[in-house]
Request: fold
Amino acid sequence: MPCSSVIRRLGLVAAAIALPAGAPFSPVSSRLIAKTPDSEAAVAVTNTLMRNVDFYVDPNVVLHIRQLHGTMHSNSGGPVNFDDKRSFVLHIESGEVGLDGEGLTVLLNKYIFAYPGAPIRDASVTIASGLMRMTGKMHKGIDIPFDISAKVTVTPDGMMRIHPVTTKILKVKSTALMKMFNVTLEKLLDVSKAVGVTVQKNDIIIDPTKVLPPPTIEGRVTAIRVEGDQVVQTFGGSSSVPLTPPDASAKNFMYFRGGSLHFGKLTMADAEMQVLDLNPGDPLKFDIDLYAKQLVAGYSLTLPDMGLEVYMRDIDKLAEARPALH
Reply:
């Protein structure tokens, strides 16, 4: 390996060791500073670009990000803190994000209908042949099994509309009977205590940004389609700031530019960090709760302008050996 490359990789560590305890670290620019409780971080947004990222917001809820352009900002005005996913907001300006059946199942059971007296229990979602199939039990004094196959579309105000095309109750096809007796899901399901969910006649309406666990996600959904085993949401809008990452040819990455980022014991001012995939054969699998372990299993490079390239191990591959620097 060329000597200059070795120096570039080791320069960051060497400079940090040479500093007295608690001193700021600013070899060329003040991008990386030692963690100091009394320091004030700049109030600014961080522009964000992602491509082919499986973003875990729960061990079993994955946002399959095909592409995303947006911003991140702290709720308190300080740096975006990766160690506290409740402390920041991801605003999606444009992009495509998929949710699979497993993720939707967990959202229904663990987040949407997890409160006492919820009208739906033991929900299960599968996605195939252009339709979403939802099974489970409606609780109306007793548990009543149901089986719904539905089309998924978007409402004019950006909500996910689940419109049943066939409905079975107690294993009996009930679509025609419900229409005949003027019985609707709205009458059967009391969702007044649920967050991000309403029922309009027979349609279940879900706010896709309110039913997710942290971090808070904002954005306007302009289209929804079923593709393979995923419901894919298109977020519309124009990208306000063009972003070109250091490695624009990378298949899978997350890129952060501007504002301040906090991770572990470091705060990065005037941030520039591209997180790259050590296993580019599949999407970058990033777990916001376990990202530190992914960092330890990878390595980072310091760019000439003191930005960072971070090579991260996928969360499902942490058992593999740590890569050698070369």
About this structure: Residues 101-206 form one domain.
